[in-house]
Fold each of these.
Amino acid sequence: MLATDQTTAVAAALHGVRKIYRTRSQRVTALDGVTIVFPAGTFTAVMGPSGSGKSTLLQCAAGLDSPTEGTVEVAGVTVTKLNETQRTLLRRDRIGFVFQSFNLLPSLTAAQNVELPLRLARRRPSGAQIRDALAAVGLADRAKHRPTELSGGQQQRVAIARALISRPAVLFADEPTGALDSTTSREVLTLLRGLVDRERQTIVMVTHDPIAASYAHRVVFLADGRVVGQLADPTADAVAARLAHLES
Ligand SMILES: Nc1ncnc2c1ncn2[C@@H]1O[C@H](COP(=O)(O)OP(=O)(O)OP(=O)(O)O)[C@@H](O)[C@H]1O
């Protein structure tokens, strides 16, 4: 049984995380000693040039990949001490993930997509629970719609409701607005920020977009697998300037 502590002020943390990918001919250091804390109830954007290690950081933090060195904690659990089965359970019960491609099952309705994680965990969600989850993302009237009958932004909102149905300690989002137009992106980002402000949800989001990053409380910048800076209460202009400096 996994010990979890929902009152912890730290939702997730990485300590001295290194990730080295080895292929037959090459050795790539994707993360090179990353230490970072994600306090509960905060919204962090992770930015950096292409190949700087953003997705690797998210995958390691979410227990989808294992660091070569260092420790990862989520909800008071040391993820890096868990075996594969325990990690799967932790991901299922305490971690939410949203991707650029919404990854909804096309044959299921919005409500059925949202309840899927609980059903896979052999838990039977009540109708009210699913209705509340869809209402929280502004889709109370779309429960019976299939993904093809929803706009991109609505599909992403279903994916967010699905990720939140198990009340995860952290919601990790990898380019959640990457496939959306700017108006729809802003709606989804406003929704994410509202979940943090109203429900104290913790969110960690990888993005290339300075405007998206400006919805976060803090931006963490990566370069060559290292944390090279942070910006609190970021504006899009300040983020763009810092990014341009890192890319030059
Ligand atoms: N499975 C893998 N095998 C080998 N190398 C990998 C693997 N995954 C990532 N890498 C390498 O690790 C480094 C970091 O990759 P990562 O995808 O984390 O960067 P990123 O900042 O998310 O990039 P982008 O913004 O382009 O998506 C890159 O040099 C990449 O080529």
Amino acid sequence: MQSSFSKVEAISWTGTQLKLLDQQVLPSQIHYVLCSTAEDVAKAIQQMVVRGAPAIGISAAYGAVLAATEGQSISSLMAMLDMLSAARPTAVNLRWAIERMRKLTNEHVSSSAEEQVTASLKNKLMAEAVAIHQEDVSANQIMGQYGKKAILASSSAGHKLSVMTHCNAGALATGGYGTALGVIRALAETNELDKVWVNETRPWLQGARLTAWELTQENIPFVVGVDGAAAYHMTTNKIDWVIVGADRITANGDTANKIGTYGLALLAHHHGCKFMVVAPSSTVDMSLASGEEIEIECRGRNELIMLGDKMLAPENTSVSNPVFDVTPASLINMIVTERGVIENPTQAKMQQLFC
Ligand SMILES: CSC[C@@H](O)[C@@H](O)C(=O)COP(=O)(O)O
């Protein structure tokens, strides 16, 4: 199967602006948002024009380039880096990308003693943003092959695989190709895949809107189900693997990902499906000992009780809308990164690969 993932260009740099494929309105509209300032980028991240852990890190890096207006003081550039870094709390990739931009700025300042942003600093920040973007695409391609190899090594020959995924961890959520969807693409490319069970992913519908859209572009067979049908689908169909992305993986292998992932891991454990997390090393946060320390983003009530302009619940309904949960390492069979694959993750195995 010919891969057409390059058709999905969710993030691009026009030379002066950051161009984002608007994920709020996909798949019914193909609409691009142009960001001319760092504030525009922070707003696009908060409003989820761009979303997915690696994609928001890459966007923030380009946001830092927009923040670096020549002649402006270094202290106001640093304040804008803080603003970008705070746009969403859970995915560590955002903070990781901004830290790379901050480090470069500090190095430049200490070697040149400049107090203003110069053309030379701006060029360095631009090169770093492009590097962050390109490194992500190549990490995804490597993880696609590692994940596929690990799955095939643990499956009996001659049977095409059924996998389940949650949220969108595809080209839209990354620099290109995808993490969980990268492994799924790699399986499809060599005809190892029967079909993908896509959970719709309430409330924002990343599965039904975005993953289904990407799989349609690639002609990969899939079925969308409501999140509550996952257990039913696992009992009525042979689902070999649940494959998901991650927003933050802590030093013991605990993993934050889209709300509902923890429940899926419990279901997978009960039904004998294997559970794989696919994420680049930029998603690993060795500074946190366990998932208990991860800040979980809670978003507004309207995401949950409104569908377009239609109310789904009585006006004054109180709502809880955590948008991520934490899957304990004990429920994860494999963590796939571009540095290698960890089976049955533990703190010692994480340390070996990431320290
Ligand atoms: C490669 S993307 C991995 C995760 O970021 C993804 O699974 C996810 O949870 C995204 O959440 P979102 O709220 O859509 O940004």
Amino acid sequence: MTKCRPVFQLDNTLVRIAADENIPLVDSFFSEFGEIRRLNGRSLTADQLADTDILLVRSVTAVDETLLKGTPVKFVGTATIGTDHIDLDYLQRANIGFASAPGCNAQAVVDYVLSSLSVLIDVRGVSFADLSVGIVGVGNVGLCLRRRLEEMGVDVVATDPFKDPAVVGPLTSLEEVLKADVVSLHTPLVNDGECPTRHLMGAEQLLQMKQNACLINSSRGAVVNNAELLAHLRSHNDFEAILDVWEKEPHLDLALMHRCMLATPHIAGYSLDGKMRGTEMIYQAVCEYFGLPMRRKLGQFLPEPGIRRVNFSDQVPLNQALRTAIRAAYEVRVDDGKMRSAMSRAEDVKQTFDQLRRDYPLRRDIPTMKVGVPAKCVDLQQLLASAGFAVRTK
Ligand SMILES: NC(=O)c1ccc[n+]([C@@H]2O[C@H](COP(=O)([O-])OP(=O)(O)OC[C@H]3O[C@@H](n4cnc5c(N)ncnc54)[C@H](O)[C@@H]3O)[C@@H](O)[C@H]2O)c1
Ligand SMILES: O=C(O)[C@H](O)[C@H](O)COP(=O)(O)O
């Protein structure tokens, strides 16, 4: 095992960092604090942390007593929204500091849902305003999605047992939400307590949905009972599923993948902006926790977007412009096609799943994309702005 050379000393405490190899910009943000070891997060062991003070992970590392007991780790940061891979009770008991990156990639997930909805409306020959969308969980992702869709003229219903309608807008029961044309899941994965979400969607809930409804899951795989979803899809030809997360990932149920309208390898949150924001957020948390100066900012490192601007003429119908802009920003069918093609050749499904994620060409968030609209097309300007685009009049 390579030992990392501690070069930073604070109150006689050496700060040594071990980080998942898939966290971007770790060197840019953290190098002044010490040498950084990059490790494979999926196979991380306690032995590898024998000389680590700060551990930086992503969602693929189970951080618990087995991993940390007997190590000098004093702080764990996860550059992700989700925290279901972290045993927070253990960290508290062991007096280990912790930070996640709430909301870091919420915009990317919203872009994923918008792109998926744009495919669905193409397939069904309808427009956004013809759909009703039910949102389950109105936190960082769900609320951003709700606001975008409502501004775009979509009929939205939402449920969340822990939120105040005065803050997040009207809320209703899960039963009511299940009556929508599309149901999109945005809860954390919670195994116990008052409102567990493991298998929140199973055979019973799926039967409450419309025969031709569409279920989108970009939260955590196990929020949906995947075996019961597959059985439902097999007995309901018009029912559609769009899945980014899978119950046993990186293992993938190929039969379920084949029956999905869109299937992607847990990349809904994989934008450059979202991933880099995640690193910045755990950097800020580390600085605060150890009383270190905060010298780095995300703006120093974010490059210009590849597509700088998409221009529309005054001839283009509103819905077509909206669909074109969303798909120019993010085309979910490309990711779906890559996963199907890779899986058709895969010798090891788990390895292929991880490889698709590791080699993912990070996209940019919709708000980084400028759209040019004629000054007189006020409706189009409003519609594109409501979807999050940076509208410029020409
Ligand atoms: N696919 C991806 O790449 C990706 C990216 C980012 C986040 N995620 C996942 O998306 C989910 C949502 O992320 P977020 O940032 O919005 O989380 P968040 O914590 O901000 O919001 C989750 C919301 O769900 C609500 N909730 C909890 N239990 C519920 C229940 N039983 N019914 C309805 N609502 C319930 C909470 O009150 C909260 O408002 C998380 O599971 C996260 O891990 C996935
Ligand atoms: O929780 C999150 O932020 C997302 O699910 C995130 O995109 C997970 O990415 P990973 O850590 O698995 O690379």
